[in-house]
Known about the structure:
Chain A is an alpha/beta fold and 423 residues long.
Amino acid sequence: MSTDIKTATLEQRTQAPDGIKLPIYMDNHATTPMDPRVLEAMLPYFMEKFGNAASRNHPFGWTAEEAVEQAREQIAKLIGATAKEIIFTSGATESDNLAIKGVAEMYREKGNHIITAVTEHKAVLDTCKRLEKNGYRVTYLPVQKDGLVDLEDLKRAIDDKTILVTIMAANNEIGVLQPWREIGKICRERGVLFHTDGVQAVGKVPIDVNKDNIDLMSITAHKIYGPKGVGALYVRRKNPRVQISAIIDGGGHERGMRSGTLNVPGIVGLGKACALAKEEMAQEGAHLAALRDRLRDRIMGRLDEVYINGSMEHRLPGNLNISFAYVEGESLLMGINDVAVSSGSACTSATLEPSYVLKALGTGDDLAHSSIRFGIGRFNTEAEVDYVADRVCETVERLRELSPLYEMAKEGINLKDVKWAGE
Amino acid sequence: MAYSDKVLDHYSNPRNVGSMDKNSQEVGTGLVGAPECGDVMKLQIKVNPQTQVIEDAKFKTFGCGSAIASSSLATEWVKGKTVEEALQIKNTEIVKELSLPPVKIHCSVLAEDAIRAAIHDWKKKNGSANANAPVPAGSQASH
């Protein structure tokens, strides 16, 4: 069975260069397709090796436990941790909640101040907002135009009540990499714990929890070609030993930090995904960066008034986030409906607000509405990149012909000077 | 989000795209919405001074597919109508025709505003008694 699945996926991949298979998936920050090798590793743990890893008295349990411990080892190796420092969760949202709420409760006597950044994922921001209602104080650091936090701002924000700094490694929209090693160093010097949401960065760029002074880190499987519904939290055990309060109580699994029967097949998948990432990261990163630059050059070589959001220098290899002036993002997505990408346009969000991440960079609302996020992944090809670039360019050109803003700009009208009826 | 076939059709084959001379006495221009809000519609009408019939209509829209479809449909509907008839077009009829979901109703409101703004502009140019009637600022309902 596993062989069939593998073959089918490989066949699809080999068709790509000439006859591209549509639709093309280029939204790898949302989720990644499963790597067939990951699925293959998981399959025995659904039927044949179905045991509960907490069953201590029979071989079914032992087999499951062995698989879980191997996965723990694989994850730890990828980030320079030890196996005992890995706590399994249902995914990154839970990991973020556990890290932040767990530290907040455990260190309440030491202080009540938490520092984060405005461009964090909602799993972090909304967790912080809830803590604010419960008497904690949260500082939301701004970011600079390139999306990076200013380390001087961070230093100034830390006070004697600060217990935790939580700043993501890589941003999910603009792919910008925060200077986590420097952040970790500052936190260590000031005796403050450092949590990082490593969801987009782990497995894509090298992270070492010891060299980088990271005390807690959230990880998820489905962004690194593993299954959905499983993640992990790295919790440092020495120098310093980090303690967290549980937010899910029960049978005392995961050394009391996260009760609940372990999702053994999922955990095996997460472990395998990490092992593959460790082996292939360097090569894959270079490949993705080359594809990303190809996409950027092909688009920017043909279209004018196209703006890259966030730093190109400090960025995930597979990420490109661009605003196409005078074109609204959702209408652009509609025009490239055989390509799966995302937009920061309000029309594509549940809140009808344009991307708060782009707004934080100082990108005007008009350009936030015009943004597209490309997430290139392991299975994308050069032919797909060329196809996507051409489809985007054609559609932008067509929509600009339809755009009153483009017409006005070409007439030399400064759109900022216009008194808009809807403002 | 799933789009209705009619929205897809107007998006793929928008009717009456273009611009007319905004300085012409016979042309009324409505420009509604704002770039910051993600929707701007420009709708123009060309009116026969004798019959008050809208003989031609053009639009350009910055906005989502539903906004493009709403304004494209609006140009189709106003053509051949008198100015007074065109003023009777309601956004709810656009919603119905295009099967717009609730979250896209503001697109139809903006299209209705665009029609009214274009007619208002034409009336002002042609010294009509109703020219000073306020243009409903319905576009604000979208925020």
